[in-house]
Amino acid sequence: MHVQSDVCIIGDGAIGKAAALGFAQAGLKVSLLSPAAPTAFSVVKEEWDVRVYAVNHIAQTLLSSVKVWDALDASRVEPVDSMVVNGDGATAGELAFDAYGARVGTLAWIVEDRNLNQALDAALKFASNVQIVHGRAVSLQSNDTSAGVELANGDTLAAELLVGADGGQSWVRAQCNIDFDYRPYGQRAIVSNFACEKPHHGVAYQWFSAAEGIIALLPLPGQRVSLVWSAPETLAETLSKESLTQLAARVTDLSMQQLGTLSPLQPEVMKSFPLSLIRPHTITAPRIALVGDAAHVIHPLAGHGMNLGFADVAALIKTVTERGMHRDCGDARVLSRYARTRKEDILLMQLATDGLARLFGTDLEPLRVVRNIGLNLVNKLPVLKRRLIGHALGKSL
Fold it and tell me: How many Å separate Cα 23 from the centre of its chain?
């Protein structure tokens, strides 16, 4: 089988699916390569996905434009009305943001991975100009007029533009021989969900500690929170061997009982994954564009890895649709414009997350004092706070 399209997308995660819907909405013929047959999600109302995203305004706008946002199960989406960041030590600093001060209705929305993918899959069923192909790509070629992949079963996919949306270990990036900088953080993200004794009131909390790492509690509907604990490797190994009741007790203490006593949700689920920085030297190649984690992997402390990916998709779709009639989707100038458009946003987020991870990962008392003073100082400067929160929201304030 040979499939010819305007845009071929490799990778069927949320970023790849959103890209397929966006290009299809723009009137382009799209092929989406999925590595395996789709697996139906089993929905049990008592279960809460431990993988969640803090969706910002750029991502929400993109999902709304492709008719996915309103298809989400709204009862499982929690608006974030404010955020409180805490330093460490006896003189811990504090930085607080709220939607009112940012002059927006909400700062972000906490959305489960399962909820998001179900809505994306439902939308794809009605996208007549998207062809989903299941298989494993084994080779990639590009020339002056198209790019294409061959699958293990001998089928081929070809398009004017090929989009790599296949994650941090991107096969597309490797096939294009794109070099990248890689640095492990020596941390693992421990994720789980808990019931909280006190209502969270839509507040996201974060605590920085050189010894324990970075602990974030994100609000879920009802009196529930999602834990994202970026813990040093040795501590993460210990945490992974403990029961969730023990983990809940640790987080209760480290959060200074901000939400009262935490207790595991049933059934008990905890997952972990290693944290690293991946910085490709370029996000384009002839007829190829990278989006999402294929284009950048950052520390999750700001919760914006997925948002960067959605911003990539929005920028790529805009650049392609505004290319002019005399250029095709994969024209070199179109891809160059996409790379320039994304360069500053990606670099700023990489520098911010990497810098904060390094700063708060050092357990030296002088640095501890300086960073706590810095948090308190920023908290008292409304203009700087608005700029910081505006960048996080993906809009000017």
Answer: 20
pTM for this prediction: 0.90
Distinct helix (H) and strand (E) counts, the chain? 11, 19
Residue 371 has pLDDT above 90, yes or no: no
Average pLDDT over residues 8-33: 97
pLDDT at 45 over 50: no
| Identity of the residue numbered 7 | V
Place of tokens 């007029």: 145
Range of the domain at 289: 2-41+115-181+276-356
Per the structure, the count of domains in the chain is 2
Q: Convert 236-263 to b/e letters by CB count within 10 Å (16 or more is b).
A: beebeeeebeebbebbbebbeebbeebe
Judge whether residue 43 has pLDDT over 50: no
Distance (Å, whole) CA 24 – CA 45: 32
- What is the structure's pLDDT at 44? 45
What whole-number distance in Å separates Cα of residue 198 and Cα of residue 222? Answer: 10
At residue 38, what is the residue type?
A: P
